[in-house]
Design a protein that fits this description.
Elements lengths: L4 H11 L6 H28 L17 E11 L5 E3 L2 E3 L3 E9 L9 E9 L5 E10 L6 E7 L7 E11 L4 E12 L1
Parallel strand pairs: 3-9
Antiparallel strand pairs: 1-2, 1-4, 4-7, 5-6, 5-8, 8-9
Length: 183
């Protein structure tokens, strides 16, 4: 049997094939997580969007529905329009969740609650939650919450959910964001 140089070269190339690049695999994993979270957010928005009807039985006044107009994750906040948006954080970093909202005042009265929850996408464990109950400031248009990503948080993607419950109109608005905790 006669061996050709090209056959031998093909065999050498097949034996020395490239090993998978871990950075490429991690990049594909992150893209896959982003797509999955976008799908989850879409489904949740559709589900919760159907619950936007206020209970105004017996009320003569027409209420506008509370709405979250801005919901961002920041690495730095120095006031309205002076902040740094960020979605990738490391353990030990401070994350600032910034939100703005409208239609929370009814006849110069406000009575609403804000609730934030942060859940890891891998283990579905809640790593942070906070509620500011019954805020009465009718002039308030936004707020921010800083929190620390401590050493107990595993690496990966986190879903941040925010709910704004208007106790006067009995309407609740929702919004979601995603952050990633890296090494």
């Amino acid at each position: 049997m006669v061996k050709h140089k090209s056959d031998e070269a093909k065999r050498k190339r097949s034996r020395t094939s490239k090993k998978p690049d871990i950075n490429h695999i991690l990049k594909e994993y992150k893209i896959m997580l982003i797509v999955v979270f976008i799908l989850i957010i879409s489904v949740l928005s559709i589900f919760y969007g159907s619950q936007y009807f206020p209970n105004t039985e017996g009320d003569e006044e027409e209420y506008s529905l509370a709405k979250i107009t801005e919901f961002k994750t920041l690495s730095e906040y120095n006031g309205v329009d002076n902040y740094t948006e960020e979605t990738y954080f490391n353990r030990g970093d401070e994350v600032i969740v910034y939100q703005e909202y409208i239609n929370i005042s009814h006849n110069n009265k406000a009575d609403f609650s804000l609730t934030i929850s942060i859940i890891n996408s891998f283990d579905n464990k809640e790593y942070y939650s906070k509620q500011d109950s019954h805020i009465k400031d009718a002039g308030e248009k936004g707020s921010y919450w800083p929190f620390l990503v401590d050493e107990t948080w595993p690496y990966g993607a986190y879903l941040i959910s925010l709910s704004l419950e208007d106790h006067i109109s009995e309407h609740t608005a929702y919004d979601f964001a995603i952050i990633f905790v890296e090494q």
